[in-house]
């Protein structure tokens, strides 16, 4: 028999591999479905690629790759019986098999035992060889089988793949000298001290200077002022500001010219007022330990509808998602997305085509994993009600065991999370995250992976018209930008129970001073109309540069909808940053309506009598040059000296008062006072007023902005892909990026303000431009038809229509900050509200619409 098995395996020996260090063995989940060794058909692991396949998908892999030898794994789960003396039988009967296998279900190890079975299967004849079979199998096959059975989880191999294992501790970390200069870094509002750039900012750990980077390892662009600062001072270490979390931060050593580890990063950051240890205390275990934190009014119970006898739901569309530990943000976003027909049609409707054309490693393919997730949620295969016989048997037992049957098996998003979070410093961690940030991250991935095909995220995309007015010249500029989510402020001052809130504040302070029990908390109730009004009100534009004055001035901005999306996402801005850098949650309730009419917020464009600002960009001026320009050279600016003296009498520096009056357009001391309050923390607050002169005072009809320096280098391909995925032509996208120093946000503005550029420069790049690149959805039509390529106006694909909506889903957050707590979602299906709380899916009795964090509306038909 041994000779027979050896001869049988000889033709397949070259395809059988022994897992090496770095190989991931997927022996707990199918690459195309959520089948596992616990499923009825078990799991087949390819002995060459080590990918796992359910019985339904293993034939596809065999036909595509020609790999014939698979290891079939089957786990039998059954209730644990007791011996004569009452002792429990050991948890596993076959301890040699399936070592370190992760379960897809939550079984109580005290109540269940596993009986494992493994065998080799040779396709296409399905010849089976039971394992272990050391004596009869060739040595190589035996070693390979043993290595597969004893290999760790594929996901555990991924977890340590981070910089912490690749980079070294900086030699400057222990002996770093920090200047005692009193610098304190606020939790937001940063900008480069030399060029006022607000992206890719680095904090020097020696003197606290905040400066922009250049093309570092993270791919972000900048003007290199952080590196220049090092060359001037030799201060070696800097930390990237937007990477600081309770677990660490990204540190770069200019002297060592690489990313490094700083074991003393917490101490170094606390020198500048950033208390990482306090951040950790406030977020660990999902609890906020601030002594001043006020308890919420049964938030956890209300949102989860605790205490109510909720009816469990099963079947297609009612499948729960297992929480892997702080992944409820992912679960809720996915549940909502796959309740939208466009996502269902794209990924589940095209399931077979996606699977047939999937790459050799489907675990790393976005479309495949989205299709797998959608099918798992919508097929009903993993959401089956308990059998009557099983239910009766459980009713006869203890009450706590009955509840287990009502919690469906659900699906585990482990493979999906590993794929979509790869390379992301936050989503690849095990910490709680912001659901809104993950939604935008996922939409970005959908955009990138939908080139040349249907893009389901088109349903969220809309255009925002921004009207900016120079307060001094009264001229205006209209621009449009792409957005996917409208963020509404929550004005506490508009609360309908304001008197009750003031009384509660007084009682709280009195109880705190007299060491008494705090009063019953009161939650602010804010009308939704007040949130909309706060969104539409004019806001000050920081660091506004007026092209009419060719200098900084006061500017105000108002926003309106240039188009309405098919599905409107509304986020209530409930979170704010405290001085301790911890995002804190405002305790409030919003009376969100079921039906919403936003037609009055549609943009109108340039109005009669309005004069546009010249189409000029600020000149690129070195910081040294700006210091040489004084107000004495050329024409002196007009400044209301009476207002200046009124402000100076309040104790503000004279030069700061002059700047405040000038930048607010001589509109009076009150406006200037507001400017002072908003800018008094800036390092150049009290420096003399400087007006940068233009390098070329020629006419403004030039195609390129005055003072702009053309770039000869090609923009990053990733940035080009993002713009083209929005419907912009490749040629136009490249021009926009080159004209704006590869800044995506400015490139979008450039495209909208230079629609005629595309016609003239289509020579060399015409071959690279897809015919579909010029197609987009009419922003003035209610249909979804595409426009012809010769259309004069260019823009992203939007599905415009009337601004009347109906609420169909909302995501709620429980807890004190986005770094802790729990998310659940409610979705309206078949005319009834359903609560999705991880694996528990039930009919909602009292949906807490007023406590939501993110709301989803779908457009009503125009009929």
Automatic annotation (TrEMBL):
<dbReference type="InterPro" id="IPR001607">
    <property type="entry name" value="Znf_UBP"/>
</dbReference>
<dbReference type="InterPro" id="IPR050185">
    <property type="entry name" value="Ub_carboxyl-term_hydrolase"/>
</dbReference>
<dbReference type="GO" id="GO:0006914">
    <property type="term" value="P:autophagy"/>
</dbReference>
<keyword id="KW-0072">Autophagy</keyword>
<dbReference type="GO" id="GO:0006508">
    <property type="term" value="P:proteolysis"/>
</dbReference>
<dbReference type="GO" id="GO:0008270">
    <property type="term" value="F:zinc ion binding"/>
</dbReference>
<dbReference type="InterPro" id="IPR018200">
    <property type="entry name" value="USP_CS"/>
</dbReference>
<dbReference type="GO" id="GO:0016579">
    <property type="term" value="P:protein deubiquitination"/>
</dbReference>
<dbReference type="Pfam" id="PF17807">
    <property type="entry name" value="zf-UBP_var"/>
</dbReference>
<keyword id="KW-0863">Zinc-finger</keyword>
<feature type="domain" description="UBP-type">
    <location>
        <begin position="168"/>
        <end position="276"/>
    </location>
</feature>
<dbReference type="Pfam" id="PF00443">
    <property type="entry name" value="UCH"/>
</dbReference>
<feature type="region of interest" description="Disordered">
    <location>
        <begin position="694"/>
        <end position="715"/>
    </location>
</feature>
<feature type="compositionally biased region" description="Polar residues">
    <location>
        <begin position="699"/>
        <end position="715"/>
    </location>
</feature>
<feature type="domain" description="USP">
    <location>
        <begin position="319"/>
        <end position="860"/>
    </location>
</feature>
<dbReference type="InterPro" id="IPR041432">
    <property type="entry name" value="UBP13_Znf-UBP_var"/>
</dbReference>
<dbReference type="InterPro" id="IPR028889">
    <property type="entry name" value="USP"/>
</dbReference>
<feature type="domain" description="UBA">
    <location>
        <begin position="638"/>
        <end position="679"/>
    </location>
</feature>
<dbReference type="Pfam" id="PF02148">
    <property type="entry name" value="zf-UBP"/>
</dbReference>
<comment type="similarity">
    <text>Belongs to the peptidase C19 family.</text>
</comment>
<keyword id="KW-0479">Metal-binding</keyword>
<dbReference type="GO" id="GO:0004843">
    <property type="term" value="F:cysteine-type deubiquitinase activity"/>
</dbReference>
<keyword id="KW-0645">Protease</keyword>
<keyword id="KW-0677">Repeat</keyword>
<keyword id="KW-0862">Zinc</keyword>
<feature type="domain" description="UBA">
    <location>
        <begin position="714"/>
        <end position="754"/>
    </location>
</feature>
<protein>
    <recommendedName>
        <fullName>Ubiquitin carboxyl-terminal hydrolase</fullName>
        <ecNumber>3.4.19.12</ecNumber>
    </recommendedName>
</protein>
<dbReference type="InterPro" id="IPR015940">
    <property type="entry name" value="UBA"/>
</dbReference>
<dbReference type="Pfam" id="PF00627">
    <property type="entry name" value="UBA"/>
</dbReference>
<keyword id="KW-0378">Hydrolase</keyword>
<keyword id="KW-0833">Ubl conjugation pathway</keyword>
<dbReference type="InterPro" id="IPR001394">
    <property type="entry name" value="Peptidase_C19_UCH"/>
</dbReference>
<dbReference type="InterPro" id="IPR016652">
    <property type="entry name" value="Ubiquitinyl_hydrolase"/>
</dbReference>
<keyword id="KW-0788">Thiol protease</keyword>
